[in-house]
Amino acid sequence: MFRILNHSEIDFNAWDNCVSKADNASLYGKSWYLNILAGNWKGIVKGDYEAVFPLIFRKKYGMNYICQPMGVPTVAWYRAGKAYENDYAPILQLVSENFDMADINLLCGEREILNQCFAGECMSTAKKQCLDMRDQCFDRLIQGFSRGHKYSIRKALRHAIDIKQGFDADVFWSVAFASDSYRQHCGYADNLEPMKALISWGLKNQSGQIWLAYNKMEPISAGFLMEADGVLYFLYLFTSASGLQLCANHLMTREIIRVNHQKIRTFDFGGSNIPSIRFFNLGFGAKDEPVVEIRSGRLRPIVHKLKQLGF
User: Fold this and answer.
1) 105-163 pLDDT, tens per residue?
2) I need a labelling partner for 98 at 20 to 30 A (CA). Which of 11, 177, 231, 243 fits?
3) How many independent structural domains does the chain possess?
4) What percent of the chain has pLDDT over 90?
5) Residue 278 belongs to some domain of the structure
6) Between β-strands 101-106 and 287-296, what pairing exists: parallel, antiparallel or unpaired?
7) 48, pLDDT greater than 50
8) Of all helices (H) and strands (E), which one includes residue 33?
9) Domain of life here (predicted)?
């Protein structure tokens, strides 16, 4: 039996237990993570939390629509073992009955099943990048770095870039606020406050890591990562113009891998189809993993037309 539960009806302990036991367990599916970044979300639950699927929704112009907020790049149908073909059809039916529109980035390698279940929906394949660290020593991991990345790391070392791991959120934010990427993608109150809450939560519970790169005592790059179920997630990375020029991000990422490679099994870079970001991630030996982008809903043509008209 599949059903949609409101936020107040979800048993968060049972939900998180289901996500942790799933073959595709992910930080992005944990209830506490969704509570911080997505607010009043709902969930599809099968049986007695045999499987779960988060529904992150917004309301605008009288429409209910599912979206992927910043910090939750993918969702998945979380269950022990592989998802069955007949699991996906009820999900789409519930979504179509309760929401006007849906933009879902689904972490699922079972493309053939999705082609059958989401026939007629707008689908495309994106990529995320992950580095498998299981049973690998640091020297072997370095061998997997690209020639260009090795050169960039040597350049940062020649300029005596200093990499530090710490808990100084103030320095992190000073770098973030000055960076172009923050102003372009994060500089809104509805993005900033959840980001601050997530970083504070991660540091308080010792699952978060702040990394900083310095050039002559001046912070030029800052990164924030979180660990869950043996996976390290690269959530935020900000850098100044000089940080880019001096390849600070390359040296910082190498140090993150060096310090964490014996503690975790996978380094999740988050992934991107933007060529420069994907090139950066793949250069550390990460591999592409498929993400299926599903765009559905009876109101999508209307919304597309409104966007064209400038609304």
Assistant:
1) 877 655 555 555 555 455 566 678 999 999 899 999 999 999 999 999 999 999 999 99
2) 11
3) 2
4) 53
5) no
6) antiparallel
7) yes
8) helix 31-37
9) Bacteria
